[in-house]
Description:
single chain, alpha+beta, four-stranded mixed β-sheet, two-stranded antiparallel ribbon, 3 helices, 43% helix
Amino acid sequence: SGDISHAGRHLLDIINDILDLSKIESGRFELRRETVSIPEIVGDSVRLVQKDALDKNVALKVELADNNIQLYADRRVLKQILINILSNGIKFTPDGGEVKISAARLSDGGCILEIQDTGIGIPAGQSRSRFCRLSR
């Protein structure tokens, strides 16, 4: 029931995103900044892609250096970014592979979110990490 509620809210967020596209195109899109709990947003994002990972036999791991990391950001936009990257990692990771999301606090109050996978799609010799440095 909690997952259904989360999925319903996420679907509403996607519909709002589609409506926001017209605002972006017309230059009227505004970020809705608020204090966001990184562990909460990571947890919500992981829950929404968990079934896809299970269906593909891909391990989905979360490593949070601190359970109190907060950031001033647009919750919906950040969540959609994480879901998109996690989904892409799952999609291109073979059976038995792994997708990992980690977060750590920076000394300036920001944080680093990193998503790694054991999938294909990144040329040899290049990092398989996708870094996102978020500052205050």
